[in-house]
Structures are given as structure tokens and as C-alpha cells.
Write a structure and sequence with these properties.
By secondary structure, the protein is mainly β. The protein contains one helix and five strands, in the order ββαβββ. About 5% of the residues lie in helices and about 25% in strands. The protein has a five-stranded antiparallel beta sheet. Strand 1 and strand 2 form a beta hairpin. This is Acetyltransferase.
């Protein structure tokens, strides 16, 4: 999967898909896609990533308490 780093606009190839979908993980492993050679993998904070369309990642990928508002008290 490819995402965009909102800090610089560069495309990022996600190498750890399970970390992306795991709402308890705040970081993922990926690498920038630019230039002719593959870049070294590095850690990216999920809040710094967007879909290529510019949309933010779903809250259920980011926030372990995303359903707390819908549960009865």
C-alpha cells in the first residue's frame, strides 16, 4: 500500500501492513519512493500519513478508543 507523508508530500510504501491496521500501534515501517534506488526502511508516525488522495487515515486505524462514544455509559 502507498500513502503520502503530509510533512513533505513524498509517497511512502508501507512495509508493515499489520501495523497500519493495528490501532494500538502508533508507528509503521515504510520507505520513501523517490529516486532510482529503493530507500532504506524507516519508521513513520501514522498521524503524519495520508492516503494519496489527501484523505486522513480512518480513526479505527489510529485510536484505540474510537468506539467509546457509541457505547452505553
Amino acid at each position: 500500500m502507498f500513502l503520502k507523508d503530509k510533512r513533505n508530500g513524498h509517497m511512502v510504501e508501507v512495509l508493515g501492513m499489520n501495523d497500519l491496521f493495528n490501532l494500538y500501534r502508533q508507528d509503521i515501517v515504510g520507505r520513501y519512493l523517490f529516486g532510482e534506488e529503493a530507500q532504506e526502511p524507516e519508521t513513520f508516525h501514522k498521524l503524519d500519513l495520508l492516503f494519496l488522495s489527501g484523505e486522513v487515515l480512518p480513526r479505527c486505524w489510529l485510536d484505540p478508543e474510537y468506539r467509546d462514544e457509541t457505547l452505553p455509559h
